[in-house]
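worker-03 picked up job from queue 'complexes'. Input manifest follows; two sequence lines, order preserved.
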Amino acid sequence: MDILNSLVLLANYIFVPGLTYGCQLALGALGITLVYGILRFSNFAHGETMSFGAMFSILFMWLFQSWGISIAPLPTVLIALPFGILCTIAWVLFCDKAIYKFYRTKKAPPVIFLIASTGLMFLMAGVIRFIIGPRDQTVSDGARFIMRAREFKEMTGLDEGLAIKTSQAITVIATIIIVTLLFWFLNKTLTGKSMRAYSDNEDLALLSGINPDRVVMYAWVITAIIATVAGTLYGLDKSYKPFTFLQLLLPIFAAAIVGGIGNPLGAVVGGFVIAFSEITVTYAYKKFYAYLTPESWHSDGLLQLLSTDYKFAVSFVILVVVLLIKPTGIFKGQSL
Amino acid sequence: MMDTLSSNRSVILFSIMGLLLVSVGIYQSWSLALTILNFCLISAVMSLGVNIQWGFAGLFNAGVMGSAALGGVAAVLISSQPVPEAIAAGGGGILAGIATLIVIIAICYFVFKKMRDHRDLSYMIIGIIAFIGYLLVRSIFDPATGAIELVDAARTGFLGGLGLPIILSWFVGGLFAAAGAWVIGKIALGLRSDYLAIATLGISEIIVAFLKNEDWLTRGVKNVTGLPRPVPYEVTLQKSPFYQGIADSMGFTIIEFSSIFVKLCYTGLFLAVLILVYVLSEKALQSPWGRMMRAIRDNEISANAMGKNIKARHLQVFVLGSAVVGIAGAMLTTIDGQFTPSSYQPLRFTFLIWVMVIVGGSGNNLGAILGAFIVWFTWNQAPEIGNWLMGVVTSGMAEDSALRIHLLASASQMRLITMGLILLLVLRFSPRGLIPENNR
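worker-03 finished. Artifact:
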């Protein structure tokens, strides 16, 4: 019984949150990796792109709520999501035309793109705070839980509960759909194949008649879709705060690099590696340990390897270890 | 010809900057103008530091915030009064913990060096040693830090500092930042420029997280306030009949005068540091070393073929630049008179400094200084301009219109938008900055 309890404890505090967080990071890292694979620079504005998409979804959500539209028990933001995506696509394509295209035709070095993307990051951070304000916004409405801890206890008769939030289930399902669609697109459609070819070897792709402008446009459109979904899901699961997206940049980049930057499969795996490491290292194992050992062994300590305030450090250490030992990442990076 | 042209240009641009500051003095207040000037000077030192890394060597350091924060810690550790009870409670434990940490790092390094032939095995052994060592260090540290944090937690709860003059910390802040840069440079230099950017972004977040949470060292988010000053206090001046006399003869009230006098003292100190750093880095830029750095920046492969050790030079320039930023970080904590870890935000401390360097002219020290002045001035005045702009925009709207209230409340966000626009516009239309690098 104690063993079962301890397993439920881990499922509740590590597996379920880790899975959700991993999905969010994986989606974020996919955006970074796509831009890197096709446009060949690290997009520092990606966190703000996620935030931007989430903001539009929230604005449409408020509009729908004011009209009394609801799809309870699912959160209203889901029907607002397509509109948020459209706005983000429009914005990202506009930015590409106004900013990045110039440097692309000039064949500027990647670091110039990087600096331009920090400029865009500033601009977008300001616009977002200007439109929606710097404060917290709650996104979730509808049913909060699929399964409450109390219900689980009554159902199984265990001492430990397992809670699954609606937002967590939505995050996992949405990620599966997005990732499946993306891989289908990249591997089966002509456009997807031309994107992979372009990412693999630009000169050869141009030689075989692939239109670079179209490839770049598709890369931005897909990035905008994934970023909006990622940002909205993150807001749905936690709450929407404009400043968190700058902090998310580090774990997202770490996920992309750990998996092998430019490799979509790597981005997904990297996302889960970072998420589960962060959560397992910062979880306090006191109660888990108490279930498995006789009472006389119990101590007062939390049995926490690292305080949760240092969760950046986890992604950073993994990043550094990968950079030192295998700079191309788990999967070989640098191609789509 | 080129030189006179660009020097004319800098004279004009600096004069405009001076006029802007004077107009703040006339239309707002002299005290505010001097505050802005002081922060401009500190920003200029920081921007010189980033210019050493980016302008001289082409290294993208996204961890400026970390170096500035390390400088701030130096100010606390040097100048605040020691807390004897806390040292008695946990000083020994902390020392033992640090000693253990050093031993463990030494063992790991030894294993790494000795087992060159078995890379994978050595990584595994190092991993195990590091894990056990971490638990060991924690078991020594935790009781000590707990004891320290219990000592009069409302007022102290930390080890305190050495109680030395705070000016000393400017130097020590440089050393701290240099040491931090050495470690991160060893790891991340030699990788692609993007990886350096991400690695430095990460380390700066960790440094700030450390300072926010290690209460025994910096009191964490409880902040260290009341750091001693290198200049006299306003209250002392106000009591002195001598200064009273000067104030009267100049037509200021004593309160105004004392505040301006104190700020002028800071201005003098900061200006001295700025001039020193400027002269040194200008000398470095014109020396054979500077020529070599530019050669490496412009073409790594051919510089390497000429026998230059690129990784070592990059490490050197990275450490130097970070040290300069560390000095500025200590100066900033000095003028604030307090250390507040939560005030370190990457937008303000990393990316804003980048805007300064790019706007001013990367590779040109005068440009970096000018950029710091312009950008800090704009950053400071943008909310005012935003408020005015929003006032004009909303003047036609009804008093209680929701849009009007929202626009007026959001006016302070104009500074982020302004900075983003400035950076993008300069990068696009004047990529070499306002005072471009001289062609030698």
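worker-03 released lock.
The radius of gyration of chain A is 21 Å.
Chain A touches chain B through 47 residues (CB under 8 Å).
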